[in-house]
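Many groups now describe folds with learned vocabularies. In that spirit, our science desk offers one protein's residues alongside their backbone shape tokens.
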Amino acid sequence: MPEFSFVISIARQAAAAEARHHGSPWIEPPHLMIGVCSIKKLLGPGGGVNPAPSDAQRAEALLEWDAWEESLTDASVDAPAIRRALRDRMSTAQGDVSPGNKGKIGRSPASRAVFAEAERLAAQAGGSQVGLIHLAAALIDCNDPHISAAVMRLGGSVELLRYAVRRHMLATTIRFPTPAPDQPEAGTVMIAGRMDATIAPFLPSAQSSPVEARAAFLYELPLLFGKGGTAAELLQVVVSRMADVIPSVTHAALLVRDRITGELNLEAHTPPGSPAASLQLAEQVLASKEALLWVRGETQPTASLDLHNIHSGIYAPMLWQGQSLGVVSLSSTDTQHPLTLQDLRLVVAAAHHAAMTLSNRQFQADLQRKTELLEHLLANFSPRIRTLLLERASHGRLRLGGQKSVVTILNSDIRGFTKQTASLATDEVLDLLNDYFAVLVNAIFQFDGTVDKFIGDGILAVFGSPEPDPAHSEKAAHAALAMQKAMRDCNEARRARGLITCEIGIGIHSGEVLHGFVGSNDRMEFTVIGDAVNRAARYCSGAKAGEILLSPEIYQHLWRVVEVEAGKIDTKHEGEFQTYRLKGLKEPKKKT
């Protein structure tokens, strides 16, 4: 890791003295910031640095101070003012304390974290020393409330100070480079410079000209739009920054076209609660796709602008891929400095950025809604099948249509449901069904089954669809046994809560069906059609509470692995059906 430069030891001495003065047993980040802001004073005559620095050390320390001071100037604050503001805050927060701590002052956990971050920043930049600029950057990034409040109290921006410090960090790091060999090895690449790509490459400062401030704003726009938050929050930030860049602006607004109603909605504006925008002019630039600048005297304002005494204004359409998404509006009441053509160019460029970001956000929102709708459509499928279908849909291969094949149908319903729930309130009945359906569906999904539909208190499930599965019969038997166990567990929990309990009967049949997605592209549903569905219902009707009845067709596939008891059931219109009551699964034979 890089070593700490001499100036860091001076800042640490000053921080320890500050902590003692406030009676603190620890050096906290605000004490460190006071130390960082005291370097120039301490290096002056009678500064009291112990031991006294050599001329070389003093020159190196002042070089580091210059980068820190330039950062402060760019952010429109100065070191003595920050030092005074922090001391005021520390005195107020801690009250009058006596400087009785004469022992060694240690660093608090927060301060140790600051030093560790300073080391990381220096190492990341490739320097051999941790300098004052790295410590300052770490202090700003630690989000200490005293430091943030002190900067804002002076009218500065913590974010702008953070950017300015990071911009100057490269220059300081280059002054303390890692020693390089006399001759680089063949094939090596020499790094000539580094820059933090998470900040704008140019930032406005107190000395920036209007042209430089506008250029810096355009460099900053992509990063502003790339921040998190809602579209409205992002647009509000950009509108406020635009008003800062053009000093004569007194009102700014951003109007976005509603994609359903076509109305222009106010998405962002400044100052809060006082929008000044003409819908008439906004509609005009949207229709013509031309930005306009107007000045009172040359063009009469509309009644809404006249109400706010607007003297000049700019309206720029937000255009993206030929579509007019909204309007950026800037207005000024300043009669001496009306908005100009240079301002118009800046607003048009910003409007294009806003349109691109807004369109991307709308696309992402649409995609999210479609994904949620698709997941809702596929809620009846097991997680594995759902994943396969989502993958198919992402490639445009989830379409209407079906196929004929042999599948296994499982039908279950609650025995005596109507009689048992006759005395229950509606919400109690729904709670009962939700309790049971949750565990039953989970058992079906566990073995790759698909829930075709809920029929009152019953469930119709299919195995081997919509994706082929050679083990569909065996999986249906496993699912049925898991469903009966889930019912027993659920009943035990309901009894413990003093609630009524129910039992289910299950019928399983295997046969050829037509299965797939039916409906329209806007409303698509999965369904299974065929005589096998009806026959599974017959076996379900014949099953007693807690029973699982297999048809002869499915028993033909499972006879090697299941324990059954043969029997018969009577049906109303189709006579007697041969059945096999599933008692369990055979133990697999051990290999000898």
